[in-house]
Amino acid sequence: MVQRAVSETPIRIVAAGTARDAYLPLLRLADDSESEVRGYYQAGDLYVIDDDAGRPLGLILAIPLPDGAVELKAVAVDAERQGEGIGKRLIRDVLADLKEGGVTRVVVGTGSAGIGPLALYQKAGFRLWRIERDYFTPARGYPDGLAENGIPLRDMVWLDLDL
């Protein structure tokens, strides 16, 4: 089977409800806390991209904040399809849609050990904003001893972008 180019695959929004359940594996890829995922996955706009067979390839969950900004709460691409430009395209297209909708500021948080996501967001124009120390704790549903890239995962790094 020939894979369709990512640029040809449509991005769509999945409404809140049971249709979002198909995207839970990708949401869990973005967030190691089941309780956190279950607490937010029905909120906001879920932008998704699927393959030709309808299998989820990538997503961004964009949730409005009280101050008018939007948080990219979850950004994930299927592990087998990372490096193909899916995440880059999702971020570009979601940011364009948010800007068209009048959003002027977007924030995103990622683990301090997430070298790939930190690079991806900065390449998209996001800038470091703040650090939330000791974010990834068992009290929030994260397993004790989490690590990425051989680095203990403790702190949340927040980035923002003015549109």
Describe this structure in words.
The protein has a single domain, classed as Aminopeptidase, CATH 3.40.630.30. It is α+β, with helices and mostly antiparallel strands and 163 residues long. The protein is 23% helix and 31% strand.
Structural class: alpha+beta
Low-confidence stretches: none
CATH superfamily: Gcn5-related N-acetyltransferase (GNAT)
Give the % helix: 10-25%
Q: How many helices does DSSP assign?
A: 4
Largest sheet: 7 strands, mixed
Mean pLDDT: 92
Q: Based on the structure given, which CATH architecture is correct?
A: 3-Layer(aba) Sandwich
CATH class: Alpha Beta
Cα-atom radius of gyration: 15 Å
Instruction: Give the beta-strand count.
Output: 9
Q: What is the succession of H and E elements?
A: EHHEEEHEHEEEE
Write the layout of secondary structure elements.
Elements: E1 11-14, H1 24-30, H2 34-40, E2 45-50, E3 56-64, E4 70-77, H3 86-100, E5 105-111, H4 115-123, E6 127-132, E7 147-148, E8 151-152, E9 156-162
Parallel strand pairs: 4-5
Antiparallel strand pairs: 1-2, 2-3, 3-4, 5-9, 6-9, 7-8
